[in-house]
Amino acid sequence: MKHLIDPMDLTVEEIDELLDLADDIIENREKYSKKCEGKKLATLFFEPSTRTRLSFEAAMMELGGNVLGFSSSDSSSAAKGESVADTVKVVSCYADIIAMRHPKEGAPCLASMKADAPIINAGDGGHNHPTQTLTDLLTIRREKGRLDNLTIGCCGDLKFGRTVHSLIKAMSRYANIHFIMISPQELEIPDYLVEEVFSDGKLQYEQVRTIDEVIDRLDVLYMTRVQRERFFNEADYIRLKDTYILDTKKLKKAKADLSILHPLPRVNEISVEVDDDPRACYFRQALNGKYVRMALILKLLEEAGK
């Protein structure tokens, strides 16, 4: 049985197939409208979510399937002390495929060992978010026409941001990718990721402190929120927070074909004035998330070729 726990679970060829399928779904939605008729998706969200949960539900509905599940641990038997293993074992009796979000790293991996249905990791703590990564890859490919030969800037919380960690790992397998990490010292990418992805020297990266010093070099700018709660003191947060607000003034130096991504939710790190800029891709990115999840559901349920 195939699961998706980590973006590295998929080969480059499998990713390309998923993205090709998502592109075909975008162009031929009616063709896929009954592919999952009679199938059920369970969304087990032990942690709150808006985009990810709703996009999974919308994806299954647009494939003609049905959805069941819960949106927080308080509304599940986890509140009574039931283990993740027992929960997924039981839910496997009711559903054909499970999308699961959990605040603890590794919980979806444990679930995959116990479930009798395919498990999709919809985010586990600060670890991985593979379907967001597939969303990002689809968006980059549709906007840039390629997944190689790119300079990608990642800005904001790079220490705890699971979307950034997953994207870096996924992009490490494509040719001529250069990452520029834009963050305060307190929120630089963690040492384990440097060791895992950059230590062999095949993938290049540099660390800078401001958007302004590198924005003219970027093909893709991946924005994330600088999280106030991660700082050791209020003074540091106040000193740094405005450095990482993208506005039209900063974009004056950017390339005309820059693609601006954000996994959302946004707080104030992208000014609303940027929304009207054609380089702003984050709402198209959110829509792409539905289509790539449709493709993933079809692949894991082996319905794509039917």
Describe the overall structure.
- It is globular and about 55 Å long.
- The longest helix is centred in the C-terminal third of the chain and has 19 residues, at 282-300.
- Helix 5 crosses helix 6.
- By secondary structure, it is an alpha/beta fold.
- It has helices at residues 12-27, 51-62, 84-91, 107-114, 130-144, 162-171, 191-198, 234-240, 248-251, 282-300; strands spanning 40-45, 66-70, 97-102, 119-124, 150-155, 177-182, 204-208, 220-223, 259-261.
- Strand 5, helix 6 (162-171) and strand 6 (177-182) form a beta-alpha-beta unit.
- The two termini are 18 Å apart.
- Strands 7-6-5-8-9 form a five-stranded parallel sheet, covered by helices on one side. A four-stranded parallel sheet has the order 2-1-3-4, sandwiched between helices.
